[in-house]
Amino acid sequence: MFLHRQGRLVEAERFYAEALRHSPAHFDALHLLGVIALQTGRTRQSIDFISKAIALKPGHADAYNNRGIALFELNRLEAALASYDKAIALKPDYADAYNNRGNALLKLKCLEAALASYDKAIVLKPDFAQAYNNRGIALFELNRLQAALASYDKAIALKPDYADAHNNRGNALKDLKYPDDAVASYDKAIALKPGFADAYSNRGNALIELRRPEDALASYDKAIALRPDADAYIKRGNTLKDLKRLEDALTSYDKALLLKPDYAEAYINRGNALFELKRLEDALASCDRAISLKPNCAEAYINRGNALFELKRLEDALASCDKAIALKPDCADAYTNRGNVLFELNRPEDALACYDRAIALKPDNADAYNNRGNALKDLKCLEDALASYDKALALEPDYKFLFGTLLITKMQICDFTNVENEFAQVSEQIIRGERVSTPFPILAISGSPEVQRKAAEIWVSNQHPIGAALPALTMRARREKIRLGYFSANFRNHPTSYNIVDFIEKHDRSRFETIAFSFGPDQQDEMRTKMEAAFDRFIDIRNHPDISSALLSRKMEIDIAIDLGGFTTFSRTGIFALRAAPIQVNFLSYPGTMGAEFIDYIVADQTLIPEGSKRHYSEKIVYLPNSYWPNSYQVNDTERSISSKAFTRAELGLPPKGFVFCCFNKNYKITPRVFDCWMRILKKIEGSVLWLFEADGKAAASLRNEASARGVNAERLIFAKQLPRGEHLARHRAADLFLDTLPYNAHTTASDALWAGLPVLTCLGETFAGRVAASLLNAIRLPELITTTPEAYEALAIELATKADRLAEIKQKLAKNRLTTPLFDMNLFTKHIEAAYAAMHERYHADLAPSDIYVR
Known about the structure:
856 residues, alpha/beta, Serine Threonine Protein Phosphatase 5, Tetratricopeptide repeat, Rossmann fold, 6-stranded parallel beta sheet, 40 helices, elongated
């Protein structure tokens, strides 16, 4: 016994074995041999010895307690519990047995019973530090964090050098959102027990809460150095993933799997890293492996659905979401993801029901509120969408890229409440590098080219970094023809197709091949049919993920990939981030820089991007001619017909007489400052009206209220309903002057007006989007309609409305120039663009980097 107490276990074991040899029924020898076997990790042998001892002396409480400890080690928890109960029955004041009984109950998740057992141990032994520590663990599991903290503090008061209690105290503090105090507690545990791997691992968790990922990584590394552990490798991998060190994260997950090959959680996290690396098939395989190991894991099905979603296997993604919900009916994330799939399947009402269910399950679900807003917006319920976005931001004020969406939605319903201050706020946040808006809303929110470029760069770096999933392109041999790939979501009844169809048809087929890559809705409408006929080949890639779309483009050896979408609805920037072609161009639909290293050129002209503004564009500039006959960058369809229908003013809702100002731009382009200017103009021109396009009834009501607030009779605002395109063009004849907007000009709407013979008055901004109308007017040789200040814009509008001769002269000039100047000369425009393509191609084959191109 003396040798045993001195820790001289080998000698003590020999002594007891010798005693047992002389007396095989020696209770103490059997019992103590069992205790030594337990202490030296021979648990099964321990049970054998102690069981034999109990058979000799059935009333010995210590033997039952020790047998319970051995059974606990073997995870035979019910048997351990029975053994502790027997010990207590024999010795009702046995505090250690109550404590150990609590441990078994704790592991069996019988938390309240475990708590009662610890409390009994403490009543019997008030200075029992270990029982207080274990009691804290039970309270922690019950999420009674303050009570757990008090229990740990009591354990530490009784035993100040109790490293485990300091570690557990740190866990409670972390969950109570006191991460600094938690780190201090872990540090104390480590100081008391320098080899405490769990404390280092938990310390890493608290450092993550403190947004100190590099320090957390060091803490996980120390934990792993002390004791290689699959959980620590997973935490390390998650930290590396958050640091965007995805390959390193993958290595960490793989090390976790080496230690624990059947660890489903490691496969789940590994799949997340592969997902972010755009290795979608590998991510899917990792999710499938997790499911094979843990078939009832809802999280694995959720992640599997995400991978399938990105792979454009939408029906399979939906089935995966449904399986996650079947496994975990109260899983809000599964409903949110299911809504996302349904939204992509163009089932917004079904998506909305999913988001509502997600919110019912998790009322603080900012993702669900954001996505709910998107579905409502698609359903044209803009006020409800705005309320949903507001709620998402209230729950998560720094929700990524949402503030700009909220603002553009306000502008769509012409809700001017505090928007000027909000415009300034979002611009300041972008300059600070904050993720507050996608790039597109900023075109209408800010007239600063610096802000617009910064917004694009933030978006691309976060959402579409240069893809590493495909190898770099190798130099290709020249071919007889340059192969052009036009990528768009809008090969349908849409302004992009209206503008571009004539141009595509006019391409010189002896020098160029044209291939369309379509990824928008297939509405089988008039323009879809026309576009399919216009291209040499038309390929629908809606159901192709970005990587396979880029691979297809590479396989087809596309020489120049032209992005006709930029950051507009349904855009697929990820295809270009993976390098679909050696030369990639931003053209037509997105009037601004994409801020992306992988977009080589932007098509413009000297009006749109003056030489002094080039620094605001990440692309090299393709300058269309700007000499005696300046050419606009905007391509136009000269085949579009104007209906011969002669509308009466009464048919259009216009008064029988009075000057008609009009603007058929989208509502979101109408800012409070522009509207202020328009109202001052109406006040100056008696009997005049302002004719606007009615895209939303709420917007019309809002603008009428705003007019009244500025002292203008609301009836002087007339709203035009949707008409077939030919009739819409024809009704322009009932207007006298088109008033442009700023900072986002009329683009296609300006071309429409000029084609229909209606003069367009514009004010020149600083950005591409704010200079398009001026570009069009220069190309049709009407520079007198370009002003450079709001005051000059207002004054010229009043002058043209009061001087009939001056306006008639301009209309006559427009009629003369319409078919004799470059704006609507598609043969000339096509030659200029083809010259630009040839110059890009020539530089590439000369192994020269992209550079500004001036088309002569």
